[in-house]
Every structure is written in C-alpha cells, then in structure tokens.
Amino acid sequence: MTDFFTLGIESSCDETAAAVLKNDHELLSNVVYSQVDLHAQYGGVVPEVASRNHVVKISPVIQSALDEAGVSLEQINLIGATNGPGLIGPLLVGLSAAQGLSLGLGIPFIAVNHLEGHLFAHHLTFPNVPPPFLALLASGGHTNLIHVKAWGDYEILGNTRDDAAGEAFDKAGKLMGLGYPAGPQIDKLAQQGNSQAIDFPRPMLKKGLDFSFSGLKTAIRYYLDDHPDAHLEDLAASFQAAVVDVLITKLFASANQKKVDQLVVVGGVAANSGLRQQLDLYAKKESKTVYYPDLKLCMDNAAMIAACARYRYEKMGEQSSLDMSASPALALPTA
User: Fold this and answer.
1) How many whole angstroms separate alpha carbon 8 and alpha carbon 111?
2) Band (123; pLDDT cuts 50, 70, 90)
3) Strands, DSSP E only, in 107-232?
4) Looking at CB atoms within 10 Å, which of 18, 43, 61, 259 has the fewest?
C-alpha cells in the first residue's frame, strides 16, 4: 500500500503549529511554536499581536514539520487546517496558508473543527480504543461534556456558561499574582498546599451538566481582599480542588446518564496532575476506564488536526471548499 501523508496546520489562538501524519495514526512530526513569552507581558493573549506573529512563523513552522518528518511538500496528499472556533485573525493565517498550498499542489483540503481536533488527540494516543465514550474537553476557551457515539457523531451534554476551566485557572492566577499562563503554576503550587484549607464554592455542582466558573474567580478575589497574606500554596490547592470537583462530578454524572464506561479527557486542562489523580481514583471506584492523550497532545497542536482531517477525508469522503472562511464561533459538528 502506498503511504498517505497528511499535513496539519493549527493557528486558532497563540500557537503556530504544523504536523505530518503518515497513514492513519503514525505521527512523523509535531512542531509547535508557542507565543506564551510574547503575550506574558500583557497577562493574556492579544489577538492582533497573535495574528502578526502567526504570519511571521507559519512558513518556517510548516517547513520544520516537513524537515522533521523527512517528507517533501510534493509528497503531501492532504492538508487539514483549523477553521474554527478561535480568534478570527490567527485562524485566517493558518487557513489561508493551507488553502494556498492545497491550490498550488493540487491536493485536497479539509477544514477542521478545533473541538473535534481535540477529540482526535485520543485517537492518536489510543488508536485501538474507539468510540463510544464520554469526553471531557477542558481548555482555555472551552469546557464541554461530549457523548462521542462514533467519530463524527457527537452529542454535547454540557457547555460552559461563562469562564472555561482553563480561563478560570488563568484569571485566578492573575489574582494570585502569578504570570501567564497560570494553569501549570497553580498545579505545581497545589501539590505543596492543603486542598481543604479554604472552602471555596463548587459552582452548579448539582445543577445540570453545564459549567460556570466565574463565581469561583469572584470568591478568590473576595478571599484575597480579606486575607492579603494568604498562603499561596493552600490558595492554589483549594482553588484547584474546587474546579476538579466540579469537572469530575459532572463527567461521571454524564457518563452514568449515557451508560458509558469509557471516559476520555482532552484539552489543555487534561494535563493537570490534580485532575488526573482524582479522576483515576473516581474511575477505579466507579469501575470505569479513563484515558488521557500524551501530554504533548493536550495543548493546541497540529497533530490532532491532521488526524481529524485524515479521518474525515478517508472514512467520511469529505473535502472542503477552498473559499471556506474562518468561523470564530464554530460549533462542534454532529452527524
């Protein structure tokens, strides 16, 4: 059988990424250029700054992915790129690059939903563990509970009503005086603190499957107003425990509702050690199995985009139009 090479491109926020996938799930390269240092001085992502930096980095990152894979541009059979959701400027950079290459090389192009891409991070790590499963997608921009009945057939059971889980970590970290991004720093501090030191609220814990973390952020602000000399490790541990409790409670509630025993956690928050530890304990207690992607596939990356593009082209017979535009508020596709 002739090998099939897919080039994936991801630029929905502040990572410029490209990856080369061989056949179904053999990852040859996965290059990610992060703009974290660029945006840290602002305490968060500045869309215009991100867009301009993507323009500078997109071509070198694509070339690096090809070089690392040992594959020439002429050997690429398919190109996939994120077209949403995300920031409009950054999305357009990666999407335009992919469409230009598709047109110039005369090969098919697939526009990939960023949320579905995160689900395919599971496919890359566990290709022999197919749906059905219940997925928790927790990142800086999204917190979703998704019943994955089959690839391409999704039912969203829960959404975030305000701040996503990752966004809550960053905002809480800013209140604590931590730099951007705060998630990894809070996770590290939490390992040295007492998670029961402060009784923070668990927003909407028993109210449906949607999420709301803005009230928790407000609770931290009020606590710091009253306790300006608060022990940072205990503060981080107590905050993280509140977020983790909510995520786990709703994940297992949705899994029980759908009678699913396979659980999948994807997105940047899937790298959180506190979440993984508690989830493993709950899963064992509830006789369920939980899967996490490789750490390098939790954050935004192009490998997951390539895997999703390959599946939609090869298994679902899809091909996207070259005049398709970016869609910042794109919803997860359903069957």
Assistant:
1) 10
2) very high
3) 109-113, 133-138, 143-150, 153-158
4) 259
- Dihedral, CA atoms, 146, 136, 16, 2, nearest 10 degrees? -60
61-82 as b/e: b if 16+ CB within 10 A: bbeebbeebebeeeebbbbbbb
pLDDT at 45 over 90: no
Map residue 130 onto helix, strand or coil. Answer: coil
CA distance 186 to 293: 21
**Confidence category of residue 300, pLDDT binned at 50, 70, 90:** very high
For residue 181, cis peptide bond before it (omega within 30 degrees of 0): yes
141, 211, 285, 295: CA torsion to nearest 10? 0
Domain 5-119+298-314 fold: Nucleotidyltransferase; domain 5 (3.30.420)
Closest residue by Cα to residue 179 from 168, 170, 187, 188 = 170
**In sequence order, what are the beta bridge partners of 84?**
113
pTM for this prediction? 0.95
Instruction: Specify the pLDDT at position 335.
Output: 65
pLDDT of residue 79: 98
Q: 124 pLDDT exceeds 70?
A: yes
Q: Which fold has domain 130-295?
A: Nucleotidyltransferase; domain 5 (3.30.420)
Assign 82 to helix, strand or coil. Answer: strand
pLDDT number for residue 48? 87
Cβ neighbourhood burial of 199 (10 Å; 0-12, 13-18, 19+): exposed
- Cβ 162 vs Cβ 212: under 8 Å: yes
Domain ranges in the chain are 5-119+298-314, 130-295
Q: Check residue 242 and report its DSSP letter.
A: H
